[in-house]
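Repro:
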Amino acid sequence: MKYIFSGIFLYFFFGFFLYFFQRKIIFNTSKKPKPPSFYELNNVKEVFITTTDKINLLAWHYNGHESNPMLVYFHGNSFDIGERAYRIKKYINANWSVLLLAWRGYSGNHGNPSEKNLYIDGESALKWILKNTQFNYSDLVIYGESLGTGVAVELSTRYKFLSTVLEAPFLSIPAIAKKRYKIYPTKYLVKDKFDNLHKIDKINSPLLIISGKKDEIVPHGHSHILFKKAKVLKKSVFIDEAMHNNLYEFGIEKSVIKFNLELWK
């Protein structure tokens, strides 16, 4: 009998732990990166974007040739933006304009990340672009990586961009949590849902989904489901040997550039 009570106690103990510390688990924040020059990003400027709730967000901006679109990069979990330098360099080398945004709580930024707050961060980045560059929404490629796909999808239901690019997207945070914590009713316990599944058919922009078939963090099947449900002009790039974080080893930037330049014409 005592084993039953012990089991029940442990179930509720770990359940309460996961519930109250879920944002520490979901949002694995990062420290401040070195300046862009350290990563050989010459002519990339540090800018600070002030959100509507008065948080100053670090971002890196490159002003490319006006004949090309602008890539707005929403990064994934755990990284500072310096760790994404090698990625945006691919687009800078193609003379695209780029804005790489660091979420609140990440890359040394103040503030606490949450679903609502990351939407504010993303929206603030768009307003900064309209105010400080020559680009309009229709000139923007909204690129979401993993966690960043949640923000990219949400903003794409509000505005029409040149395109929306989703790298290693997920159905929702509860769907990811259910895979890891099978014995808990994650659907009801997760605060920050980022429900891409119920939004993907409401986006307004052409869609490119990129995923590795050996993704060890987000099941590759999530990309299939999202792609099938999307109603806009769409294309998928599914790579047999790729995992969650090594998609650029397979040259996916070529697919991103080709897809968007065809739309840009």
